[in-house]
Design brief:
203 residues, alpha+beta, globular
Length: 203
């Protein structure tokens, strides 16, 4: 039985992700770690309408009966928890950021909040970009140095000590990506307002 407070945390963050257009109806997944156990969204569940039975418990290291129901990205979440001190992971499919990931190797925010919170977000590319060991290893390795990374053409993976924190990085990234897109539509010379902005791409 999942603790009511844990369920409400999953439910609220999942709903916020859907409302903020960070996932489609059945896309994305979220998880938290408790010692050697992981709680993760059920495979095929809708993040915007999570019910208590949509939260699956399984092992960090060992498979058990929960594996069959867990998200297909469980392998990635496990790799992240093993490689980082994260206690929560948010995986989203933010649309503007996905578009940017198809044309660059890093997303460098140009807005004030995105610059302050993220500096830059590396874009990782793998041959098989969904639920593979290659993908899991690449994402976990990148997250050892960054709090959020992007898998080209697929989506973002963010870590935090709470789901709320990982959600913040995810939402900030999509806002930054949308602002970059709007600036490109304006197609006007940008007036620089940030001190040491040239260093952001080297972060």
């Amino acid at each position: 039985m999942i603790d009511q407070r844990v369920y409400e945390m999953f439910r609220d963050i999942g709903r916020d992700m859907y409302v903020h257009n960070l996932v489609s109806s059945h896309g994305g997944n979220i998880s938290v770690r408790f010692g050697d156990r992981i709680l993760i969204k059920r495979r095929g569940a809708m993040l915007g309408r999570l019910k208590p039975h949509d939260i699956i418990e399984t092992g960090l290291e060992k498979n058990d009966s929960g594996v069959a129901l867990a998200s297909t990205e469980l392998i990635v979440h496990r790799a992240i928890y093993k490689a980082t001190p994260a206690l929560a992971v948010v995986h989203a499919h933010p649309r503007h950021a996905i578009a940017l990931s198809l044309t660059r190797d890093e997303i460098v925010p140009i807005d004030n909040e995105g610059s302050y919170l993220l500096k830059k977000v590396p874009v990782v590319s793998v041959e098989f970009a969904s639920g593979t060991k290659q993908m899991a290893d690449a994402i976990a390795d990148a997250l050892s140095a960054y709090k959020i990374v992007f898998l080209r053409g697929h989506g973002s993976f963010a870590t935090g000590q709470t789901l709320d924190e990982a959600f913040q990085w995810t939402d900030a990234l999509e806002e930054a990506a949308e602002i970059i897109m709007y600036a490109k539509i304006l197609n006007e010379e940008m007036i620089e307002y940030r001190r040491m902005s040239d260093s952001y791409s080297k972060w």
